[in-house]
Automatic annotation (TrEMBL):
It comes from Arachnia propionica. GO terms for cellular component: cytoplasm. The keyword Protein biosynthesis does not apply. It comes from the Bacteria. One of its GO terms (biological process) is N-acetylneuraminate catabolic process. This is Glucosamine-6-phosphate deaminase. Its EC number is 3.5.99.6.
């Protein structure tokens, strides 16, 4: 696992974008795995800037979102479908017909989830998976104790996750209790993973993921087994790392 500690969110976005561009270089139809939430916005903004400047073109790219709420209409602005369209597809000038989000409104959620994994495989698998991390160590919505072998499926959200995500919902609007999320096994099949994390409230989860034992209580720790992971954090998210000096030293040599 490669870890880069950045001074601020803007640098986080730049470092992560540099790596994404390196990983998709030469691919005619790059397949991106897309996270929603606050963390990857710096990366998406930086990628959008580079699209604007003509450095990269994602119009032939394919996208698969990580997750969607159950019971929220895909047309609802709070749905992850709409969030992905607003924060990724439009700014990166991707073709919306080539970007999929799990269907949280399907009458047969299990069948739709199975079909989602098949669609990822049919696209040749994910080239670069973008991830954030929950304050409880989740990736996607694979909450603590999720199976490391899990595939896309329905999960119950923890109260912690619902509280963390309440900020996206208005007063009187209930945060859904369930979601459809790519499984840990699904995520681990991506060829490359870039995780973006900012803020002190994520420090404990970041430390558990990078320096803790590989354990289902911190689902993100499974990434220790992935051969190509870059974790880009700001100083606040790095405050719990015992090996922070080592990670800075590694970067110094690379520069
Ligand atoms: C979102 C997702 C989640 C978030 C995580 C962090 O699609 O899969 O794992 O990445 O909850 O969310 P933020 O970045 O909003 O703190």
């Amino acid at each position: 696992m490669e870890v880069v500690i950045c001074s601020d969110e803007q640098q986080v976005g730049q470092v992560a974008a540099n790596r994404v561009l390196r990983w998709v270089e030469g691919l005619t139809t790059p397949v991106l795995g897309l996270a929603t939430g606050s963390s990857p916005l710096a990366l998406y903004n930086e990628l959008a800037r580079r699209v604007e400047e003509g450095e990269i073109d994602f119009s032939c790219g394919i996208g698969f979102a990580l997750d969607e709420y159950v019971g929220i209409d895909p047309e609802n602005p709070l749905s992850y479908r709409q969030t992905i369209l607003r924060t990724v597809v439009e700014p990166l000038r991707m073709d919306p017909t080539r970007v999929r989000v799990p269907n949280g409104s399907a009458s047969d959620l299990a069948a739709a989830a199975l079909e989602y994994d098949r669609a990822i495989a049919a696209a040749g698998g994910v080239d670069v998976q973008v991830l954030g991390i929950g304050s409880n160590g989740h990736i996607g919505f694979n909450e603590p104790t999720s199976s490391f072998a899990s595939r896309t499926r329905v999960k119950t959200l923890t109260e912690q996750t619902r509280a963390d995500n309440a900020r996206f919902f208005g007063e009187g609007e209930r945060v859904p209790t369930h979601c459809v999320t790519q499984g840990l096994g699904t995520i681990m099949e991506a060829r490359h993973v870039v995780m973006v994390v900012t803020g002190r409230h994520k420090a404990r989860a970041v430390t558990a993921m990078i320096e803790g034992p590989v354990a289902a209580v911190c689902p993100a720790s499974i990434l220790q087994f992935h051969p190509s992971v870059l974790v880009v954090v700001d100083e606040a998210a790095a405050t719990g790392l015992n090996h922070a000096d080592y990670f800075r030293h590694v970067v110094d040599i690379l520069i």
